[in-house]
TrEMBL record, chain A:
Topological type in the membrane: Multi-pass membrane protein
One Pfam family it belongs to: MacB_PCD
Highest taxon above the source species: Bacteria
Protein name, entry field: Peptide ABC transporter permease
Annotated ranges, domain MacB-like periplasmic core: 34-259
InterPro entries: ABC3_permease_C, MacB_PCD, Macrolide_Exporter_MacB
UniProtKB/TrEMBL annotation, chain B:
Pfam families: FtsX (PF02687), MacB_PCD (PF12704)
Molecular function GO labels: ATP binding; transmembrane transporter activity
Entry GO terms, CC: plasma membrane
Principal subcellular localisation of the protein: membrane
Record lineage: Bacteria, Pseudomonadati, Pseudomonadota, Gammaproteobacteria, Lysobacterales
InterPro entries per the UniProt record, alphabetical: ABC3_permease_C, MacB_PCD, Macrolide_Exporter_MacB
Top-rank taxon, per record: Bacteria
Protein name per the record: ABC transporter ATP-binding protein
Residue stretches making up the MacB-like periplasmic core domain: 20-260
Keywords: ATP-binding, Cell membrane, Membrane, Nucleotide-binding, Transmembrane, Transmembrane helix
Organism: Rhodanobacter lindaniclasticus
Amino acid sequence: MKLHPILAALRKHKAGTVLISLQIALTLAIVCNAIFIIGQRIERVNRPTGLNESNLLLVTQQWVGAPNADTADGVEKLDAMQREDLAALRNLPGVVSVTPTNSLPLLNSSWTGSVSHKPGAQLGGKDNTRTAYYFIGDQAMDTFGLKLVAGRAFTAGDVQHQGFRDQPPRPIAIITKALAQKLFPDGSAVGKVMYSDGSNAPTTIIGVVERMQTPATGSWGNDFAWYSTLIPTRLDANFARYAVRTRPGQLDSVMRAVTPLLYKVNPLRVLDDDSVKSFGEIRAKAYRADVGMAILMGVICLVLIAVTAAGIVGLTSFWVGQRHRQIGVRRALGARKIDILHYFQVENLLIAGIGVLLGIALAIGLNLWLMTRYEMTRLPVLYVLVGVLAMLVIGQAAVFVPARRASNVPPVSATRAA
Amino acid sequence: MFAYYLELALRSLKRNRALTALMVLAIALGIGASMTTLTVLHVLSGDPLPGSSGTLYYPQIDPRDNSGQLPGAEPPEQVTLIDGLNLLHAGRADRQALMTGGSVPIQPDSVVVDPFYVESRYTTADFFPMFGTRFSYGRGWNAADDEAKAREVVINGELNQRLFGGADSVGRNLRIADASFRIVGVLDDWAPNPHFYDLNTGSYGRAEQVFVPLQTALDLKMEHNGSNDCWGRGAGGVGRIYPSESCVWLQFWAQLDSPAKAADYKQFLVHYSQEQKALGRFAKAPNVRLRNMMQWLAHERVVPDDVRLQTGLAFGFLLVCLVNTVGLMLAKFMRRAGDLGVRRALGASKRALFGQLLIESGVVGVVGGAGGLLLAGLGLWVVRQRPSSYAALAHLDATMLLTTFVLALGSTLLAGMLPAWRACQVPPALQLKSN
């Protein structure tokens, strides 16, 4: 097939050709970037927290008229109340283990600080590594389902308690593998000493866990998303959080039993609808904006592609109608049906080709612009290539129906007025 | 003439029903998506206190030491308690208020109602007149009550409804965090969006139910919520209910009625910083900012990036839909070159033809715009069903309604312009000949 007649015909439809190419280019640019954003969101949502997330629930509750956590006496009373709750929860049928904790991954309620090789380092100094603390009990490893890769887990004897705002020394800690590698790149963190929050008292690392995400899902927490530090301490305040692991299949029954049980232990407290949450709910809430954004972008991309495809169908149909007589002449002069079909297909390929070339430039330009304004990384070439291929295929699919109609124009129409 | 052209347009549109439907649908989808996202953006970036936001300022000073901080960096986003009280007592602004947030247990006298926690704001007296809060009953407290650590409280309409069934509860007593308070005022549904005066406790859809004098709250050690930023050894201290002296955790707002006063106030902040440095409290050279409310909201990037991205995406979509419409309309008009040639030959001017074709594209625009409005209504309904904090705010207002129509009509007329112009360039004689 010779391109010459196609080019000559397109030159007669300059405006139409330019417009459809432009539409393809814009569609390619927008869809490439949108799919890239969707991909990033999906990757973010799917990253594992390091916990065994099934059969895990979190209880958040507040006492009313609780003892003052600023006095030694008050702290002891609060701790007794907390131990009473823990014992009651552990006795609940279907419960495997329970730990007090200040937060959980994805909960967006974090206690962050920094750890350093040196004592007395000032906050915000260079040697400091940001970390998020989990203050937990001895059953935490089992309750969370963490995988210990070095050292040992906490024992009941390791666990201390403190008032929420007190700052006692932290003699031992378990840290994540990511934090261990940052602090001790030679891979021997167990038994080493670090200093937390500018303290002069050393903290000995007794164990390393494979992975545990910090509670923050916002962009401010991205830099230290895997730098968690576990401290064996019950925090005593007028509120407490308990993480509960249940036997498989008993999550729902335990969730229903928790609130009445805790009210029975001590009625002077507040538990509302939000107080007992499964980890699944915590995960869904943490990422709902990302999921919503991904769905919205996906829908807009689909509609965008549909509009562009419909535009190609519409415009080609017009051209077929307009050239009805010429097609008849070509057929009468000996062109086969397949030649007519190919003519429109090649014509579309040419138009779409111009469109995608322009589209590649637009896609990269749009990505660069987005990078200056939002948190965005460089668009991988693969996305653009797949996008280009997809646009060409969509173009061919869209042109097929009108092109076949064109190929069915009978040669006799050459003799009739258009 | 207009009626005749309109009839012609309708006839022409009827001739290619599928194509007309495609053009209308594309415009409607584009307008619907753009208006939905634009409305959300408009609501989120709106002025929470129209009329007075220009005179409200958020002073920032820098009391930090030099550890690990870059020179020229932004000062902290809040103030320490000492600096807050100093600025408050200096009284250099027309009005000023120092505040922070928390949550408190409400302990109703009735035994049938269990105690419950509500969000609270601890603030000094000017909060109410400065932010123009609207009262259903009573009023706020005054500066003397602040200093006297008065047990007075302002509650909002929601809490008043819950506790007192909406009746005038001024003068009644309310037990909060184990202390007895006298209700002095009941707000109506006042809840500015964004929650500009303290963005740390959520930007949208937040409203405190209880307002307590700051000094009273500190005296009773009421629980504090929000952001604490500390430096140096600031995190230290044992048994401290509130953050230490080297932590910022309160917000300070000032009302300055004229730009000259604002300039003076900025000078005052510099002098204050110098004075504190001389006293040894501050370590840095004066590092102050004085942004008004809207500048502060822009600086804090209070509108979520996702919302901006969505709006950008929707307008990109609209652009593609318009290009699509231009292409289709062009093809359509060019196909009618024969008819147009006959009309030209019969004496119709280019302008008349142009007008006729524009009316045709205008009809597509109006119908598409109406469809877009319906889709925007649907889109906003979907947004309201979503669990985001700003969901309930997503409503079309008169401005956005008008914008939708202008956008729909304007964009399709613009889109019809090029095809109409191209079609009018057809020389009449040539068209007559070719058939």
